Amino acid sequence: MMGGRGEMKSLSLKKGSRTLSDSHLGLHWSNQDCNFHPGGGLFASVQMGNEGNGGLKLPCADFLLKYVSLPEENGLGKKKKKRGLKLKIKIPNPSLRRLVSGGIAGAVSRTVVAPLETIRTHLMVGSSGHSTTEVFNNIMQTDGWKGLFRGNFVNVIRVAPSKAIELFVYDTVNKNLSSKPGEQPKLPIPPSLVAGASAGVTSTLVTYPLELLKTRLTIQTGVYNGLLDAFVKILQEGGPGELYRGLAPSLIGVIPYAATNYCAYDTLRKAYRKVFKEEKIGNIETLLIGSAAGAISSTATFPLEVARKHMQVGAVSGRQVYKNVLHALACILERDGIGGLYKGLGPSCLKLVPAAGISFMCYEACKKILVEKEEDA
């Protein structure tokens, strides 16, 4: 800065105190006189004169400093925090949050893997070929791409409420059965095992008729003109009990499947936190953990799933009618051997494994979007 005699005056900058001063002119600027507003500029009082006499206030100081912000690297200001677009929806009721999150997770996951579900169903009953490639080619020649998504609308209608009920029951039961830190366990087995089985049974009882309608629409092409037509014709042919054909093997199959699925998911999440010393689990990690849990549970219970599909189809196209799940398992084993009980396991895992991972990932993501209070957003 130039003084009255045209000579350069000394300037001193103290980083710790954030004070700028001219020893000759008495120019003084201190952060103690500043008011910093995160949303706006930096306002300060700049005074000029000899120290001790109060000095003179520069008339343009407020105008200039209003548009001046000092970089954080020099310790003289603060940078604005960069915030990305974050979608938050306020739902105060925790039960409703779980129901909505579960419904969204089920709908998204089933739609993504709908083609694999269609191929898997055809392979189980042997209606369009005996290999994944053969079934795919037959579907494409007969119905095109739409054939791969046949029955998906019914599937989404079934899975969305089913998953919502399932996750709600699981969280509720698991919370009530879990002991607090320092307390004795309430059960000799993991609470998530019982909670998962309870969740599976409840959701199956509520949504089983839609599962049967979806299977009939997928297999019996050209017989029904839609969901309502299939519902009416099935009632006329077999009565209300026909809507629950195959329920016993479904319940027998869903108990070990849901129990192992949720127990494996809960156990893997706890192991991840313990190994990596992280409380928060990212989306990719959740996807992998959920997929691993789905692989374990689907492989263990697949024979019961095959028996259930055969019982649901019934006497369609001259197929054998089975008395019960044991009869179905025995007949399949006698006719096709041990391989018949695992027919379609490959595409089943290709469908169930990512479906489980996507479902858990969407559920955890939705819980972050759906918040209890506005300040959480």
From TrEMBL:
<keyword id="KW-0812">Transmembrane</keyword>
<feature type="repeat" description="Solcar">
    <location>
        <begin position="187"/>
        <end position="271"/>
    </location>
</feature>
<keyword id="KW-0472">Membrane</keyword>
<dbReference type="InterPro" id="IPR018108">
    <property type="entry name" value="MCP_transmembrane"/>
</dbReference>
<feature type="repeat" description="Solcar">
    <location>
        <begin position="281"/>
        <end position="369"/>
    </location>
</feature>
<dbReference type="GO" id="GO:0055085">
    <property type="term" value="P:transmembrane transport"/>
</dbReference>
<comment type="similarity">
    <text>Belongs to the mitochondrial carrier (TC 2.A.29) family.</text>
</comment>
<dbReference type="InterPro" id="IPR002067">
    <property type="entry name" value="MCP"/>
</dbReference>
<protein>
    <recommendedName>
        <fullName>Solute carrier family 25 (Mitochondrial phosphate transporter), member 23/24/25/41</fullName>
    </recommendedName>
</protein>
<dbReference type="Pfam" id="PF00153">
    <property type="entry name" value="Mito_carr"/>
</dbReference>
<keyword id="KW-0677">Repeat</keyword>
<dbReference type="GO" id="GO:0016020">
    <property type="term" value="C:membrane"/>
</dbReference>
<dbReference type="InterPro" id="IPR023395">
    <property type="entry name" value="MCP_dom_sf"/>
</dbReference>
<keyword id="KW-0813">Transport</keyword>
<feature type="repeat" description="Solcar">
    <location>
        <begin position="93"/>
        <end position="176"/>
    </location>
</feature>
